[in-house]
């Protein structure tokens, strides 16, 4: 019996992956040697590292994965000399054979026989790529040069001496190849990747309609737009006249403490914000010295969901009209405007699928983005006034989103939370606010992401995936999302297929959280929790275990 082992990892599971890789490497090498195959352990580990870097799925291999590993990844990232070349395909053959014999290639992998054939087909491409040093990355290029000259890379003195010899021309390297590699290196990553967003469970139309109908901000925007009607006079700067501003404040029951002492409409902050919000949402516009209703806005007033979405998207464009910022200038933290930071906030919230995050996490994300933009740590240089204005304006932004019904705000008074927030904020007076998207807010951000061309998966899109991959993706999901995804996964499999796949996974699953999710899915199949699993050593026809050897038999049972 090989025992329990994990094969799917998220980007944050580095420690778990490192441990699993070391155990797998030892087992694969031992498996290969029992079959008379000599494999290099470091190359087996390198092949696992490649797959971990691609998608974190060590048991998911297609012909394209094999071809990319041999023709691109190994030549670029692994320092190989002429005598090492044949060891690379041998390591891949051993890895594929081991996974196939233990039935650990997942359901979306190519048959093992095809994978072995692809190793043979791509081996010439490996040799061709290794013959051209321009295919290395910068670190691999220098590692290969030092290997050729017998330089111990762990000795900094020897490395420095080698580089000095190269610099003065005592040792030759392919400088044309080095120049091209350096240009590529300075150009940054070849394939930048976006965030891996979790599947979400969106609200139904009735739930969204109820949320839009109960939105305080939407009711005010609708009333303000209707009040404008055919037009209201505005100042040269586009402000309401004081009399009109007081009248609409009285009609909407806003700015209670400001109406009597206001000298201009700017002294009525709630009405000022409402005016700019309505303009950015294209419900009203200024033309010929008058504020008028936009023609195509009239039908929206009776279509709550469409009107709500337009109001939500406009929040990020209101910019310097939050919290009276028009007095102090556009709110920014070293050049990061509130409008630029708005997508950062939405992405953080969306990634939690409706769970709350501390506002201090958003502040930290903005500071890190500013540091990256400037190329050094500069956020600590922000003056106290700038910090206070920024935080005040963020608070106003969150209040507007809550008024619209897009987020839910809470405060934590827990002492432990305060200490963690203080560490996150780097200050003794952190914001105790936590913020979460509401269901309609989650829907709106999903629509924005899709419109921007970002893949934002919905519940059910993982139904064709391997069960371990589903469990890893669902480990941090809300219970209702995880249950809906598991239910969709079970429904996508005919007859006993779901139960059989779950039992095979439970046989080797080592993470208790993954086992719990798999057992919850198994309960949906109607299978008994202690059903005898398929033997781990069984190889289906065509599995293509590479090399001769006896089949490993196992009589393990699941342990809930």
Features:
8 strands, single chain, disordered C terminus, 560 residues, 22 helices, 4 domains, mainly alpha, 3-stranded antiparallel beta sheet
Blueprint of the fold:
Layout: H1 14-34, H2 41-54, H3 63-77, H4 87-101, H5 112-131, H6 138-148, H7 156-167, H8 175-186, H9 205-213, H10 216-228, E1 232-233, H11 242-252, H12 269-280, E2 284-287, E3 290-293, H13 304-318, E4 332-333, E5 336-337, H14 338-351, E6 357-358, H15 359-374, H16 384-404, E7 407-411, H17 415-425, E8 433-437, H18 439-451, H19 467-474, H20 479-491, H21 497-508, H22 512-525
Antiparallel strand pairs: 1-3, 2-3, 4-5, 6-8, 7-8
Helix pairs in contact: 1-2, 2-3, 2-4, 3-5, 4-5, 9-13, 10-12, 12-13, 13-14, 13-16, 19-20, 19-22, 20-22, 21-22
How many domain modules?
4
- Tell me the major beta sheet: 3 strands, antiparallel
Tell me the strand order in the biggest sheet. 1-3-2
Number of distinct beta strands: 8
Secondary-structure element sequence?
HHHHHHHHHHEHHEEHEEHEHHEHEHHHHH
Radius of gyration: 30 Å
- Derived from helix and strand composition plus strand pairing, the structural class reads mainly alpha
Give the distance, in angstroms, between the N- and C-terminal Cα atoms: 19 Å
Mean pLDDT: 84
* Strand portion: under 5%
Helix fraction, binned, reads: 40-55%
Give a description of the structure.
The structure is a single chain. The chain is mainly alpha-helical and 560 residues long. The protein folds into four domains: 14-186, no CATH class; 205-321; 332-451, no CATH class; 467-525, no CATH class. Helices cover 54% and strands 5% of the residues. It has 22 helices and eight strands. It has helices at 14-34, 41-54, 63-77, 87-101, 112-131, 138-148, 156-167, 175-186, 205-213, 216-228, 242-252, 269-280, 304-318, 338-351, 359-374, 384-404, 415-425, 439-451, 467-474, 479-491, 497-508, 512-525; strands at residues 232-233, 284-287, 290-293, 332-333, 336-337, 357-358, 407-411, 433-437. The strands form three sheets. Strands 1-3-2 form a three-stranded antiparallel β-sheet. A hairpin with a 2-residue loop joins β2 (284-287) and β3 (290-293). α2 (41-54) crosses α3, α13 (304-318) packs across α14 (338-351) and α21 (497-508) packs antiparallel against α22 (512-525). The longest helix has 21 residues, at 14-34. It is globular. 36% of the residues are buried. Mean pLDDT is 84; it is low at 323-329 and 531-560.
